[in-house]
Amino acid sequence: MNTPPQKPRARDIGLKFPGTPATLNAITDVKGVSVGYTTLIEGHGKLVVGKGPVRTGVTAILPRPVNDICQPVFAGMFSLNGNGEMTGSHYIEEVGKFALPVTITNTHSCGIARDATIRWAAKQFPDYFEGEFALPVAAETYDGFLNDINGMHITADHVEEAIVNATSGAVDEGSVGGGTGMKCFDFKAGSGTASRVIQYAGTDYTLGTFVQANFGDRADLKILGQPIGQFLAEPPILQNTRDSHLSSIIVIIATDAPLLPHQLKRLARRATFGIGNTGGFAHHGSGDIFLAFSTANTYATPGRTEEVLLSRHIPDEHMDPLFAAVVQSTEEAILNSLIANRDMNGRDGNFVPALPHEALKSAMGIY
Amino acid sequence: MNTPPQKPRARDIGLKFPGTPATLNAITDVKGVSVGYTTLIEGHGKLVVGKGPVRTGVTAILPRPVNDICQPVFAGMFSLNGNGEMTGSHYIEEVGKFALPVTITNTHSCGIARDATIRWAAKQFPDYFEGEFALPVAAETYDGFLNDINGMHITADHVEEAIVNATSGAVDEGSVGGGTGMKCFDFKAGSGTASRVIQYAGTDYTLGTFVQANFGDRADLKILGQPIGQFLAEPPILQNTRDSHLSSIIVIIATDAPLLPHQLKRLARRATFGIGNTGGFAHHGSGDIFLAFSTANTYATPGRTEEVLLSRHIPDEHMDPLFAAVVQSTEEAILNSLIANRDMNGRDGNFVPALPHEALKSAMGIY
Amino acid sequence: MNTPPQKPRARDIGLKFPGTPATLNAITDVKGVSVGYTTLIEGHGKLVVGKGPVRTGVTAILPRPVNDICQPVFAGMFSLNGNGEMTGSHYIEEVGKFALPVTITNTHSCGIARDATIRWAAKQFPDYFEGEFALPVAAETYDGFLNDINGMHITADHVEEAIVNATSGAVDEGSVGGGTGMKCFDFKAGSGTASRVIQYAGTDYTLGTFVQANFGDRADLKILGQPIGQFLAEPPILQNTRDSHLSSIIVIIATDAPLLPHQLKRLARRATFGIGNTGGFAHHGSGDIFLAFSTANTYATPGRTEEVLLSRHIPDEHMDPLFAAVVQSTEEAILNSLIANRDMNGRDGNFVPALPHEALKSAMGIY
Amino acid sequence: MNTPPQKPRARDIGLKFPGTPATLNAITDVKGVSVGYTTLIEGHGKLVVGKGPVRTGVTAILPRPVNDICQPVFAGMFSLNGNGEMTGSHYIEEVGKFALPVTITNTHSCGIARDATIRWAAKQFPDYFEGEFALPVAAETYDGFLNDINGMHITADHVEEAIVNATSGAVDEGSVGGGTGMKCFDFKAGSGTASRVIQYAGTDYTLGTFVQANFGDRADLKILGQPIGQFLAEPPILQNTRDSHLSSIIVIIATDAPLLPHQLKRLARRATFGIGNTGGFAHHGSGDIFLAFSTANTYATPGRTEEVLLSRHIPDEHMDPLFAAVVQSTEEAILNSLIANRDMNGRDGNFVPALPHEALKSAMGIY
């Protein structure tokens, strides 16, 4: 996982995005944040529940280095369309923070991702968890078009593996981790990331976004404002089973800009515009839930806190550049999840093609 | 499980509550609703994570008969204090309904309760779930004072067992199901239920409430308005381990009164007053999340719906008697969860006494 | 007001939008909905608070015919960015409905618009209001760049005039009513409207959107996906006073499709994508609050309600075409508010140019 | 207004409340907070809309000294039952703060209270408001049982008068200011206040609560846990007009404890328990909206802010004593609004008796 395979990214095929990415153009540009994957691809042909074919995985995003992972980050959340799950949401809404790794997987394994994250933490920090509970964030999108989702192939060990795998370097994209079996605009999609640098008051702040993209109809796809989806009918998706247009997108936004919980809710809400820029508009069947956190403020773990905490924040009045960074990085992360991909077939011969780069470039007039 | 043991209830010791209960004074008075438990009690002495002692369980509440369990009920939710988990909340907030059994368990097994509910449903209704996902409700309170909560003793099979056990008759109370290891006002508590009949426009409607009660300090306990907790110092809780005042209450409200989603949110919010009547005021560490659903309106499962649905509802202007029923039945259900109980010891010799009936009666002046 | 002046609309200059508008391409295509304006334009030159210059007004949108105006409509609301005001929001969130005319005006006259709506209603329906209160919807955007906003030029009579003026025919656009002093992308904007027809289950439903548009920086403007704002530096805005980038957009969505309150919240949320399509992304200083209502279900006024009400609704699973209609009509209504306009100068010589049609057409390649 | 008349308070008649009040047992115990009233009582007999009888007023609560009133306070809000109005709510939810005086008046004058607060501020701080807008908080309860509410007797000057009247000393209670025409449990009520001192980490913090109480049926009244309302049938309310059980309570909570916006929402939510302790349970017709603010953190007015702000806050884990202070002070403030009162008659001979002190003491066994 340390050396992502050489997959192209949206910029590599000539797409020009506004704003300035940080070094890796990834969520891991935010210092201390790391990403790990477990990817499960096994079997072909007819679905046998519990056997496969398997096209799924788990993604773990660690908001702080492992040794500090029990120290909360301020956070905020937004549900654009709640036809999905993100555990930990009540806690974040209540106290504006969360701790421990965030996991993202398929819809029917979201619970095990949550519980296994606690199991991992309780083993890592036995003293802390001797009389403490945890309410971790686990999110999901639906991969049942390609994957034996009712086979429940994700185990607690797979979840731990993703957490342990997490690294802070370049981030693999496409059909990896929780994104393994996902599709977006009827092209193969899944995991994607991007980042932006925001200059404010003499300081460079970084904002990085990670998406698990799994939404949209082909005809709706827009790239940099062009309604390109309607010109990309080929290659078609091949569908042998009922499809309930079960789509979703999870967006995780990290930043080192100092922000309070209510401000992180504001950030999260802006991911909507990034999705809109690619042509999505939150179908009924979509679970579009967004989480934003800031690593800037630190304080001891609960129970050992300072008596009165001091927190820094950028005034709300100066947040517009951060909002723009969310819009830009969400849009680019979604396109990265598409561009990085290859064709995939899965259960019952269902087939999702990759977004064809040459046809895309030609349609967009990029040479 | 069909024949609840002969446990006393709050009325049995002479407490007088306002309002008129239905036949069983239980959530199962609402036609079609059933409750099932899996109770795990094993081992004594020093905590060995993964071994025990085990004092935990799972509760399943089925909003409709098993054969109709994929047919959603209108629902609404309220988080009084979100230091807890209730999966499915985003979905309920978005579309005002849910399907499948509701499960309640301990904090660290909430995820497996959720996923296992899907596993059960996918086996029961393989055709329906061939290309469909589910976002079931699973909730939790913390039992780590008595239970080896990090041992993750709840398995998917235990969850299924609770679902399969569900019956529509009298409901066992106290240290059963998800309530097994819970305490309330430093007395042994857990599962409790009560119901009320509401007459409206010539019809008798039923509203039933189920609680998993696990909150409050001894000194705060009030019974029927009397600050009884401060006179009941004996017997004390025995505590050999760190306790983080990790408390919570989950309230599930069922009714056959015809109500729309926004009205069920209003019902859920009123559980707050029932808790307040017992002396609770939602401590920081408490996960106080309430769910209300109505069985009155029926429609086919998604994907096979009528083109335009017809729903009945009582006008908002006439909801006050329903609000009162929520307050009354929540208060009584909490006290039932206490009165039904016996002493319990658990991990590391931690001990939670039962609420002593005679001392209580004497303090209250009940003969 | 019955005969709107001959102002061009976005389609008139060759812009092609997706979807099918209804007869008038206006919110008044929804049967029973009417729109009225009071427009105040007076004085030039230096600001003298209380004297002028005045560039403001009031818009009234009646969700039902005047005689039925006390009969609520089901409604839902969304605050994309709450740096603004919409009274009545608590009530709509609580009971999913509202009655009486909706008014929209400038930020500092929102209160008088609210109270004067009650005054009008109490005079119209003295028996009903003899022992009843009202919580009407009044919203606002900021016109202080052109208008003497602290002069409080809107009177209760002006508000009544807008209500009484309301008609159900073609709707005037641009610098009229509450939109009189507004700007959008640094071009003159204000009131705009559009509509869509949605075919569902053999029925044609209508959805109409009205905006008071007052947001965005010139460089951000996008038209039909093209980043046209950066090519339209001319003519510039002329600014002689401090400007705090105080921008906003109010969106009112009406439909005759039968929907429940929770579904109307879902509709309202989709206006976000329409704004995003024009380049907006909800600046900090923006009050972006959206209201959706459905005229389909009728019932008697409160206090005289049926005992149990019957309501129709389209299943959530079939809402995607309605979502698309919101996105499309919001985008088109914003552009209509720009295209219909002419240059305007105001207080202290501040000047906002109209969006130049020829330059726009040339930049877009429309001939 | 500086010397409140000698009215009794709940403690004066022997009621014992938990917790320790600060010096004045009033919201003005929080340093910098002041309260002012305008009270309008005129005429008797038959209602003539626009003539009277008049039984109404305006209350102004200034969160900071007048000279600092444009400097926001962190704030949070909760709507227990949204059948009421509190303007400024969208802004508070969005950015967690508000500036300017809070006003409370009758339901149909809430808009003028809001706009007139801006008018006052624009005159006081003409430079600041030369290019700025405001979104002040104005709230309401319904006094139409005694008052000619549709006569709109509150003028902008009355609102300014309440603001200018504000003082930081003892606070008059009962039928004054916005509370003039209110009733609670069918006894005369209106304005009430109380405070608590909270010791934390070696510091004494103060929390003060102000209510405009106007809710509840006689039979529901509880005092210190005793269901006293059912024993206080005399004297009855006299009602000659239709009454729609239009009741409400506005709760304003001030503290000098350093808290962030999300924490102030938590505080606001706890007012529910204080209401519950008096027997209220949020009837359908009630507008029960609560606002909490903290004066602890200061920063320059928007537009002149520091680049990065430093804020102090008590960790969420230590908020329970603050929660208890909210419950206690809300309960006591409601009872103060009752105990301070005298009988009042109003429109059409409607009559609301004072809570009879001797009968109360006798029923409670207080000598």
Write up this protein.
The longest helix of chain A has 20 residues, at 320-339. In chain A, 21% of the residues lie in helices and 25% in strands. Chain A contains six helices and 15 strands. Mean pLDDT of chain A is 94; it is low at 300-304. In chain A, α2 (110-124) packs across α3. Chain A has 367 residues and is of the alpha+beta class. The interface between B and C is medium-sized, with 27 and 27 residues. β13 (309-313) of chain A pairs antiparallel with β13 (309-313) of chain D.
Descriptive keywords:
6 helices; 25% strand; 367 residues; six-stranded mixed sheet; homotetramer; alpha+beta
Number of continuous helical runs of chain A: 6
Q: What best-fitting shape of chain A do the alpha-carbon axes yield? A: globular
Major protein interface:
A-B, 53 and 53 residues
Multimerization status: homotetramer
Number of strands of chain A: 15
- Termini separation of chain A comes to 32 Å
Helix content range of chain A: 10-25%
Unreliable stretches covering 5 or more consecutive residues of chain A: 300-304
- From the helix content, strand content and strand pairing of chain A, which structural class follows? alpha+beta
What is the H/E string of chain A?
Answer: EEEHEEHEHEEEEEHEEHEEH
